[in-house]
Amino acid sequence: MIEKIPTLHISRDEWLRERLGSIGGSDAGAILGLNPYRSPYTVWAEKTGRLPEQEDNEAMRQGHDLEAYVAQRFTEKSEKRVERYNYLLRNTDAPYLHATIDRRVIGEKSGLECKTASALAAKVYRGGQFPESYYAQCVTYLTVTGWERWYLAVLVLNKSFFIFQLTTLPDDTCPDWCESSVFVSQEELESLKSFAADFWERHVLTDAPPGMDGSGSTSQTITEMYGRPLDESIQLLGREDLLLEWDRLNQQKGEIQLRQNQIRQILMQDLGEASEGLCGDWKVLWREQKRGSVSLEKLRKTYPNINLGRIMTCHTFRRFSIQKG
Question: Which three-class secondary structure string do you get for the chain?
Answer without folding.
Answer: CEEEEECCCCCHHHHHHHHHCCECHHHHHHHCCCCCCCCHHHHHHHHCCCCCCCCCCHHHHHHHHCHHHHHHHHHHHHCCCEEECCEEEEECCEEEEEECCCEEECCCCEEEEEEEECHHHHHHHHHHCCCHHHHHHHHHHHHHHCCCEEEEEEEECCCEEEEEEEECCCCCCCCCCCCEEEECCHHHHHHHHHHHHHHHHHHHCCCCCCCCCCCHHHHHHHHHHCCCCCCCCCCCCCCHHHHHHHHHHHHHHHHHHHHHHHHHHHHHHHHCCCCEEEECCEEEECCCCCCCCCCHHHHHHHCCCCCHHHCCCCCCCCCCCCCCC
